[in-house]
Amino acid sequence: MADDQKKGLSRRDFLKTTGIATGALVGGGLIGGLVGYNVNKDGVQRKSGTENAEDHDVTSVKGLMFFTNHADFNVLSQAVERIFPEDDLGPGAIGLGVPYFIDNQLAGNYGSNAREYMQGPFFAGEATQGYQSSLTRAEMFRQGIAKMEEEAQKRYQKPFVDLDGGQMDEIITSFQKNEVEMKGVSSEFFFRILRQATLEGAYADPIYNGNNNMDAWRMKGFPGHQFAYINMIEDEKFQKIEPKSISSMQH
Amino acid sequence: MAKTLDKVNVVTVGVGWMGGIIAAECAKAGLKVRGLERGKSRSTADYQMIHDEYRYAIRYELMQDLSKETITFRNHRKMRALPMRQLGSFLLGENLGGAGTHWNGHTFRFLPYDFQIKTMTEQKYGKNKLSSDYLLQDWGVTYDELEPYFDKFEKTAGISGEYTNPFAGKRSNDFPTPPMKRTPILKKFETAASSLGYHPYMLPSANLSEAYENPDGETIGACQYCGFCDRFGCEYGAKTSAEITVIPTAMKTGNFDVTFHANVVEVLKSGNKVTGVRYVDTQTGEEFIQPADVVVLTSYVMNNAKLLMVSKIGEQYNPDTGRGTLGKNYGYQILPGATGFFDEQMNVFMGAGALGMTIDDFNGDSFDHSDVDFIHGGSISLTQPGYRPIQTNPIQPDVPAWGAEFKKASIENFTRMLSIGGQGASMPHKENFMSLDPDYKDAYGVPLLQLTYNFTEQDRNMHKYLTDRIAEIMKEMGAKTVVPGNPISDYDIVPYQTTHNTGGTIMGTDPATSVVNTYLQHWDAENLFVVGAGNFPHNGGYNPTGTIGALAYRTAEAIQKYSKTGGSLV
């Protein structure tokens, strides 16, 4: 653990040297913009706690790998923010980078259901038999996001992103209650994966481009990756531990 | 055309706990053993970046790639069986070490009652305690006969525990290593259970309390309580698994090798013996025939049964006539439980997979069943596995599932919630079985296994009874709010429940009611052995690995004997 200090810059040092302080970071709510942390003027992020940063020159930016336009991405962003909103405890889904997490996941194995059985024939089946759609998650999200926009126009003659929170909630609730007609998938199922993906993006390790600055872990009192608790697990007292990312896990 | 390889003495289909044990014991005895593993190699070196909940616990990195093979499922015979397209209810293993890599390490011995369940139940409660739809049968081997093999498996694995459970079978030796740490969270359970008159003890654990060298000279590390155990491999080599014990033991003899990416599609049979297996190299698509003096099926429950079915070895069970044994007595487990919400924050994120305390006051026949409408029961445990934030978002029943209230409650509760769970035994029922699916196929053109399964009346009654007992303990622990688990209705393959599937290739003393004899030797092919939880005629109220480990050691001995003498072992 002490290796952090030896091998590279600590997060605090890094922030100092790049002139970025957490208070000055772009907060949540800026749709389609960079909502990351440790963002410099070029939009380049440097992940904190990466011991091998010097060896591998790890730099990254957040960007879209799946959605092809910002309008769709913005609908997703607003929807996930309603599911996991910013409040006095800390950032919501947007501030945590959840929309980027979901976009990036949709572009990979998750979006293409690469490790799932996708052979036909397809039948609706009973609820106890689980997911039976021929659609991939990527296809479900594309359709689901378009449906959200369509519902907004139909109900309020406005883009989804211009609705107030209550109106957005109404539409999301319609999906949850399976009241929106979708093709090849139920709106209830789409809601479920949207909710689940939101939680995954909030609480996954920041290497997946959500959970910015590990703030979701801080809110929840979860220390992320720690090597060992053997020396404190018998303590009666609740332990507040500064979280660490998997990117620092080197034995 | 398939290319025929040189013959070996013993071939194992799958190299996890079962394949590893068979390989180690047979290779030590001088037999040439080859393991066919359809996945890839892996070792502790591959677990050095394992503390990643998303990759391993949510996206199932270590588990079976269902795009290649899954099962189909229906609740009953009138329902159309459909593929399990995503993992959920149980997590099938893949690659070296199998599901034993991502187990939690709970290592129990089934109770003496389990092995003689039919006899003992009838003696005490008469023949009609359960209807004849429940296909209860004795295992043909007693606890006492298995005891030396339990002992052997526990010594191989270095199990940490304490010999204080008054309901357990008699042990010839104490546990190889002392119990894990009694944490403040466990003590809450211990105090509450004791004050209700129950008998809590430290859960027998394969997350070792101290570093240990096993009789084969393999070293297992000391658990660091890092909180990433179930669904993960151990970066410290402190959770005993096959790839750090029996597999290296087998390798060291020079008599064992493993062929990876070798997916067995058929057991080859000629007359009343098998001659070897046919497999597909999953990287090239080439087919090979591996001849062997002895074939041992050591893959998971589902695949062991499927291979016998596609190879037409044994008679498929027919629920209409009751004839046939292959696929019969599929069992699962019943999971009663309760969640408790507390005022104080607790270190719930610290833990280990098998860090827990258990009571058996409602397991087996520990209590009188005269006035209840079920038999058997389950162990009841509070474990501290290390809660993680994607999977653990506890909310009270009146809190919405998303939005502002959800966020607040799930964050507040994360460090203030504990749960107690039971593992209820599963009694075999004539309508719960495995067969071959007529429609769906795996990536190699082989039919998928079809599972027909639902909870029974016995299950529902037991679930309710145990849930009530569990809720009482949680209340006694001082929870502000106690939320008991919902009553069970139909089995649902979506939410995770347990990877304790059993049956389908059951053991017994009569070929009319079992697939293998008590040495796990196939009734229809004397040089074919089938090893795993598929051998259980019913599922008990504990995790199965300790019991299948014991059965595997007994079979390893039997295979050595068979190699010298041939013929039926019974």
Tell me what the structure shows.
The complex is a heterodimer of chains A (251) and B (570). Chain A has 11 helices and no strands. Chain A is mainly alpha-helical. Chain A has one domain (64-248). The longest helix of chain A has 20 residues, at 137-156. The termini of chain A are close together. By secondary structure, chain B is of the alpha/beta class. Chain B has 2 domains: 1-160 and 235-333 and 427-452 and 491-570, 3-Layer(bba) Sandwich (FAD/NAD(P)-binding domain), CATH 3.50.50.60; 173-203 and 334-424 and 455-489. Helix content of chain B is 22%, strand content 18%. Chain B has helices spanning 17-28, 53-58, 112-115, 117-125, 143-157, 184-195, 246-252, 301-310, 404-414, 457-476, 545-565; strands at residues 3-4, 8-13, 33-36, 71-74, 82-83, 201-202, 212-213, 219-220, 256-259, 262-270, 273-281, 287-297, 337-341, 356-359, 378-383, 417-424, 433-441, 447-452, 481-484, 528-530. In chain B, the strands form 4 sheets. In chain B, strands 1, 2, 3, 9, 10, 11, 12 and 20 form an 8-stranded mixed sheet that branches. A 6-stranded antiparallel sheet of chain B has the order 6-14-15-16-13-19. In chain B, a hairpin with a 5-residue loop joins strand 17 (433-441) and strand 18. In chain B, helix 1 runs parallel beside helix 7 (246-252). The two termini of chain B are 38 Å apart. At the A-B interface, helix 9, helix 10 and helix 11 of A face helix 2, strand 5, helix 9 and strand 17 of B.
